[in-house]
Amino acid sequence: MNLNLSIKVESNLSLKEDVQIIIHHWIRTLDIKLGWIEDFDKIVVNYVYVVFMFDTFRSSSKLINAFTGHTSAVSSIDYSTFDDCRFICSGSFDETVCAWDIDNNKKIQSFNRHSSFVYCVKFSSYHYHNHRRYVICFSSFDNIIRFWDFKNNKKLQIFNRHTDSACGIEFSSFNGGRYLCSGSWDKTICLWDVKTSKPLH
């Protein structure tokens, strides 16, 4: 066993032993009855070890990339992969939505036809899986939810039932993301059928 590996093994054993001592102290001090979990101390030791390893990983992690181009605060981001290409979309208080190509480190499109700032952005898996289109859905404080094909720079559907700012949006995790849920400052939640562009509720 080489010296570095030996040090790591001893360090890990030392950490586990320290945690064992602390746990047994808690049990004695608090008079905790743990008969229903016989391996409680092992579970906690493993949990602490994983957290320690995560902290070690985090401390050695580094910034991969930074994308600049918005002129005001970025309010929302989303990530997706289309045809093996990785993208980020972002919405901002500068009233724009941007699509970024991660692999080539550049902004590829910008949509700025809003009268107010953008609150939330989401990639539409429904449009990709059913029509092979690269589509971003976004809500705005102008009360409107829009769909934008950023590959062809084409505006698609508009949902405008809300009477006040459209805030959070979320696609369904079932039916290929066919349904969209939106919340608003008008105190309502709307459910939409993306296929028919009609509200369900």
TrEMBL record:
GO terms for cellular component: Set1C/COMPASS complex. It holds the Pfam family WD40. WD repeats lie at residues 67-110, 159-201. InterPro entries: WD40/YVTN_repeat-like_dom_sf, WD40_PAC1, WD40_repeat_CS, WD40_repeat_dom_sf, WD40_rpt. It comes from the Eukaryota. SMART domains: WD40. PANTHER family: WD REPEAT DOMAIN 5B, WD40 REPEAT PROTEIN. This is Serine/threonine protein kinase.
